[in-house]
Amino acid sequence: MLVTDFSYTLPDELIARYPAKERDSSRLMVLQRDSMSLTETNFSNIVDWFRPNDLLVLNATKVIPARLFGHKQTGGRVEIFLVEPLGEGWRCLLRSSKPCHIGQRISLPQGVNAEVIDRHGEQDWQVRFTGTEDFDSWLQNIGQMPIPPYLNRESEELDRTRYQTVYADAPGAVAAPTAGLHFTPRLLEQLQQQGVLLAKVILHIGLGTFQPVRVKKVQEHLIHRERYLIPQETIKAIEKTRELGGRVVAVGTTSCRTLEHSSSTAGKLKAGGSEADIFIYPGYQFKEVDALLTNFHLPESTLLMLVSAFAGTDFVLSAYKEAIIRQFRFYSYGDAMLIV
């Protein structure tokens, strides 16, 4: 299986560089696997595609404002991109005109300093922050939202709310679980009134979500690891859904990977935390997810491979071709796809 099997050409103007005016005003393409048919509707009508006792599994991770800008003692500008917290300090990517080094000190706003204390890769460093007693509050005030590079713009104030789901409550991600961006509190309430159950998992999305696949054969790619947590309440909700004959609907590839990794490694769904390193591509047999809500993904990406595994590569790529013809908006701030 070749990576190029998951390629398509997207006109630049179909990349959604800003979110829709209202979260649920996006368009929705529904793929019905049993009839191999496509239906176009508005996201606000998604309730029509659910039945009582279905379960929506939401990724409640919260995006942190991970981009910081400071200066070396020599005056050179440095960008610090927070990746994940470590036992001491943070794992970070550092970008500057001249390479940083262990012992490097970086001055940041409001008297905060960063010190490079270890190196893990070419641009991958361990950094310790000093000068603030409440780093999280300082970060919320000073940091910039880590919007995807393909948006080709700097983050703006609107990104602080719109590049975040309305149910996000567990800080730790450096990218948003974008399928969930379309939901409003009102829409979630409508689903619950219709008898749809809601449950949460937490998977902190890392930088690997943007990394291109650099091998020719799909099977040779090494997937990135992402920290996750499945609450006991979610296990119980899934068990209840199964008993009542409902469907488990994963909101986003991150929720899907969380459930499938837990089931694949433990033999069954298990509450608690771990790191998902499961690479899902065509040929994979899904164990927990019955339906999938997702956005339109980049060509030759692991996310597109996961979706193709769920609905079939030919069917998915034909749907993408139709979405381009119909001028759907693509990627993080784009329109949505529901596969049932």
CA radius of gyration is 20 Å
Weakly predicted, low-confidence segments: none
The CATH level-2 architecture of the largest domain is identified as 3-Layer(aba) Sandwich
Number of strands: 17
What is the fold named in CATH at topology level of the largest domain? QueA-like
* Coarse morphology: globular
SSE series: EEEEEEEEEEHHEHEEHEHEEHHE
What class do helices, strands and sheet pairing give?
Answer: alpha/beta
Largest sheet: 9 strands, mixed
State the fourth-level CATH superfamily of the largest domain.
QueA-like
Count of helical segments? 7
Which strand order do you get reading across the main beta sheet? Answer: 2-1-17-16-14-3-12-13-15
